[in-house]
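dumping the sequnces here before i forget
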Amino acid sequence: MTGKRSHDDDANTETRRGLLRAAAGATVAGAASTAGCLAVSTPASVSAQYEVSGNVAHFVGPGWLADNRDDVVVLDARGAEQFRRERIYGARHVPFDAIAARESTDGGAVPDADAIAAAFGEIGVAPDDDVLVYGASVGSRVTRVAFALAAVGHEGAVNVLNGGVSGWNGRLGTGSRDRVAATDYDPDPAPSTWVDREWLAERVGTFNGDGPGLVDTRVPEAYLAAAGSDALNDDHDRHGHLPGAVDVHWVGNVSGRRMTDPGRLVRLYEVEAELDRDETVVVYGDDNVDPTSTWLTLKAIGFEDVRLYDGGFGEWANVDGDRGRYPVETATNVVVETEGSVGGGDGGGDFSCTG
Amino acid sequence: MTGGDDAPTRAGQGDAPSPADRVLAVPCEGDDLLALFALETGERLGEIPVGSHPVHATTCRGRTVVATMGERSITAVGPSGEVTRVETGVLGPSHFATANGELYVSCSAGDALAVVDPEALTLVDRVAVGAEPHELAVAPGADRLYAGSRREGVVDVVDTETRERIGAIDAGPDARVQGVALSPDGGRGYAVDQRGARVVAFDPGGDVAGDAASAAPVRGEAAVGADPYDLVATADRVFVPGRGDGVVHEFDRNLEPIAVREGFSRPVDVLEVAGERWVLDAGAPRLRSLDGAVVETPAPGLVATPAGEGRVAVSHYDDDSVSLVDVESGPVWTADSPAYPFGSVVV
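..and the predicted 3d for all of it:
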């Protein structure tokens, strides 16, 4: 298809929910009730299941977006093909690789604030815009966009859409992106949102003890360095985890297309992982995308100071030079099982002196 | 390693003198305590909390230093009982070795050796080695240290002057290196591969430069009894207990077979006491010499420490007791201990 489809022409906009769009104006409660009687799903009932209630920050439901649609810049974190096929009307497509850019410093890899800001500027985001980010669900691409905005010191509010595009029952768009005027996004880097390798090296031995909380967000097999596991990254010289890290696989933050029940998340992180919401908590993964799910989730449930190790385990495991300063642990592990995890495994080596 | 720089040494290095006021310090893994006993009488003198899972102890600069495997630190106990924690940063301190006046500690849950200043009781460095380092051995000149990696199947070689890993000896495919020892003259090194039930001999001065582990220094290998763990190297012999088979293999220094000693239940160590080699058996309440002499003990022993004058202190891990055993006359005393007594040291 080469022709540009008009996003102003609803009648010609192909969407898989076009038939249901007429119901969009119904109240959530009424639609849900009707759906129950007829045993069918309506856009409103689908939307209703993604509403967010209680004391949860950063995650909003479709109803919130409907109420604030004209006041926020909507960013689509999905791939380009998905964006072209169907999107929230007026959404702008995030150049994802650019907003995950890193720069090297003496202390290790950190977010490349200039590159990230430039990427947001290209899609017309201004530092004081209120932003709503969505994806197919509330996975890590979405949360990486939220993190990237925080990293460049975004002044406007940043929220993500619970349920992703599937929960949206409002106007949809398709085809090529709309033209938007670029902005000159001047970053105000916020290093309080991340840590680097040296920051961590200085605190080895203190994590989840006297020092900061530290969460490994990878699958347990990677954390455990389970011999023979497909989860081990062949590009890494070493396997295991940073000393003292507790493993909570990030997929536990997501239940289908929405965030896991907040009460469950509080139990997961405060009770089972024993993290202190009043202390600094660092999250890391293999890369700098997946752990942002935990970064945003912890902030959403009230953790005050959550930071991302942007270099990730990949940087730590492959660091050049004095690796004694950057040790990894393999035995004696703390794996907090999540619904999305693949289990604790037992390949991490025994921990005994009796053989 | 159970001895220290001013402690009785272990098998192959002879008995120690025995002043009457000596104390047997026993890390008790189950209760996180260092239990103290009068060596001569067995009188229980007290306990000192030392941290999670204490397993081995050594003496250094007048202090007793305890490896607490459940911590990211070791614990030093001074002559007056004062306790100092020394951070290692990495979990699982298990074994000690002294080289160039510094205390090396294998951090068996990670991939590092912690280097501790025993006077200042501070961490001065960490040396990256293969994952899950376990036993340590030091060359007679103390210029090189050897650490066995349980996960990577290598013996890492560390330059103790620069505190850098200068290479590694490949102990074979899928090896799980537990015990590491050098002959007293430093001319030959040995590594026990628990998984493969093998012992490997290597040239301690061999060229190991490079990032990848090298098999070039390996000089030979031999099969041993199942589930070997530790070994003892003397001037002309190598002894490897095979815990699973109840045998002790005896080799010459080139791993040519000398004998296979049978009839043990679960042999775990070979100690030199009163000029003879005695086998400690974790499955039977006795010490048995390689010549066939037997001395009954109150219970099976997992770890034993020569205490001088033909005596050995035995930790009865599964029976929560310790004893002092004379290889001529049998038990001198037996005392209850906190749970799971492990590698003791005479202070």
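Chain B touches chain A at residues 29, 55-56, 69-70, 72-73, 87-92, 94, 107-113, 125-128, 131-132, 150-151, 178, 194, 227, 229, 243, 302, 317, 342-343 (CB under 8 Å).
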